[in-house]
Batch of 3 targets.
Target 1
Amino acid sequence: MNATLTAIRRYPVKGMSGQDLTATDLTAGQAIPLDRRYGLLHGPAALDTETEGWRLPSDFFTLDRTEKLAALQTEFDEETRALIIRRGGRQVSRGRLDQPMGRTLLEQFFAAYLAGIVPGMPRLIEAQHGAFGDSEEPSVTLLNLASLRDVEERIAKQPVDPRRLRANLLLDGIDPWAERGWIGRTLTIGGATLEVVEALDCTPGNDVNPDSGVADLSLPTIMERGYGHSQILLRARVTGGGRIAVGDPVTPA
């Protein structure tokens, strides 16, 4: 069986909606362009203006702790760096992430929307180098859709939307869990090469329904009971730059 790249997805603002791409150019040592480029700081972290570079995931509003973020639909315009926020299909805020006034408008919206969750004013920041991923090393995450279907059929007994997993690259065409044999190996996707570093555990954020913003599935728990582990994503580093596109074959070395 041959694996195929079926979707490319980036998350311009950490914790917010994903954005589907038909193709993108990968660079060695970097994440997908503009993936987790921005983040929304909370509490004491929002007052820290000295820290540069990567920051701990706990510094940001994320679905692990702020599930109601999933009830927002965000749209990112790469050319203008504008972030449009909708709720129930209605636009509720808009601002340019590259301009102080635009960030202020967005921060004021989030302060009202997330009032009472964490004290203080939220602050939007941009990663000057790399991305605000869950690991300090810029990475790409992969999901085998066949493994997710196995979870649906054998363990969850209900559909599990792939958006819950917030993966960058969605693959199909191989057996369930075959990707676990790729750890430590190199993959070729289109014109790029990636080294698979490790499998990742599910988190509470994966329990959040991407449409309702409600945590209605205990994915880590049911996977531990059914498989003895909760690892369904792979983390990979880009070792050779090149263009990838939906439909490309995925070939392990």
Target 2
Amino acid sequence: MRTLKPTRSLLAGLVLAVSTSAAFAAQPTPFTATYQVSRQGEAMGEATITLKSLGNGQYEYSNQIHGTSGLAAMLGANSNDVTRFRWNNDAPETETYTSKLVALKTKQRTMQVNWDTKQVSVNEGKGATNYAAVPGLVDRNTMSYALGLALRSGHQTITLPVGVKQRVEQQQFKVQGTEAVKVPAGSFQAQRVTRTDSDKHFDAWYVPKQYPLPVKLAQSDGGDLTLQLVRYSSP
């Protein structure tokens, strides 16, 4: 019995160490990514996407776009989307989302998710719309990040519950193959992902082993924008 006790203690210590390391590794890694933004082929501005930890399993994900050329610069066009999410079951779940777009006039949207009552409240300045939350709910700001995390886990067909104005959309995506992509950050062999449940154009090119965000994204929703990665840094 005396020889077994140290062995059991050692095994228990090893199990605890492995479990602790796995839990730590599963947490999101903060980053800053900068993108070149164009609209219908014309340079428009720059986007900065950041992820930072707020502690206690909560994170802030922000996406700021500044109009630096063409009509966007003339109008002083800027947008600022900020999401606070919790890390649950190795995936993000939105708690609050705010969106502010300034271009001649200001347009704002807020979304709050009460996970105790499992209710979503969306307000665009004309009164709130409420609907039921579902596990794994994300918003349109963090959708591309959640998609990248799913790809990193090896998924080829992905369904994401995305909270929009009046309901949860079960948005569906599929890897269509690997393509050569050249962006300011470099040349990559990237997985091209498309949205398969909507007529809205969405194409994103991911290198999931390197980045949780796409190296290139082109979508019609939000103004026919194309984003190309310029630089990415993570501590």
Target 3
Amino acid sequence: MNSDMSILHLVLAASPIVQGVLVILVMASVLSWALILGKSRQLRRARRLAEDFEQDFWGSSDISGTYSKLTMRRGTLDGMERIFEAGFSEFGRLRRKTDNEEVIMDGSGRAMRIAVSREADIIEHHLPFLATVGSISPYIGLFGTVWGIMNSFTALGNVQQATLAMVAPGIAEALIATAVGLFAAIPAVLFYNRFANEVDRLLNRYENFAEEFSTVLQRQAIRRFGGDAEQS
């Protein structure tokens, strides 16, 4: 009896619909955990690179030197480095074309906002999948449970005397679907909320840097154009 009521035996003896539900939920759980591990590494690396770049940037007084170093490895830039590179390259390009300080600052600020938006797309990639798994997995498991219980009670209609021993295996196999649905959903919800919070904090950090860097660029523009005005 214990062998017949083992989880493996119940899964193998389940109806094709319930087995299909279990396969979908297991696949969703495996993909969720793969995404969770990958996203954890991605966000951890993004935080570390942001901290390293901010230390290097604010610890140096040579913005042009920092930009030159980054242009030498333009294809491997990440996060805050790309925001800095976008803003400073646009600042330099516009400064060579116009003396209008407002146009220069608007252009460099817009370039950094676009860069921040692109970084948001990168770090938020695949997060909706976790939200989807967390929201629909319990319902998929519930569908399997309802279907299994329905089959169990339908089978009871073919016998004259129903006993608990007859209905228990069918109900047990049905409840496994609910358990697997929760097993897939709970980690997905927990890590989605955690990642969403970390992404918001990281994007706020990017946006704050862009604002602070805009102030630095504005001071440079004022010094340049102020000096030109005094010479004239």
